[in-house]
Amino acid sequence: MTTAPSPLQPTTTFDTFAQIDVRVGTIVDAKPFPEARKPAYQLRIDFGPQIGVRRSSAQITKHYACESLIGRQVCCVVNLGSRQIGPFVSEVLTLGMPDETGEVVLIRPDHKVPDGGRLF
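Predicted structure:
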């Protein structure tokens, strides 16, 4: 089954876009999240000394095993606030794109960059 791209969102301003704080961090821990409604992992992501380690729930079980995630850099929105997901508090939104079946593929830099670096 092929997933169709979602429709283009309405035009926004650069100032609105600039309010979204997307940073890079390194996954330091990943474990199954059996209490989640859909298959997911609990991640701990290190964003460097300014932000520190934050937690995220990510529905990425189709393409990634927990052990393969440790040390991987990922891009996350760090200023959305916390979200309670069952017994877990997710503090950042780990970013991904859907593959042809709608499963999440993580967004990450092509080369290692300093943790905490901001998307521009």
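Summary: The chain has a mean pLDDT of 95.
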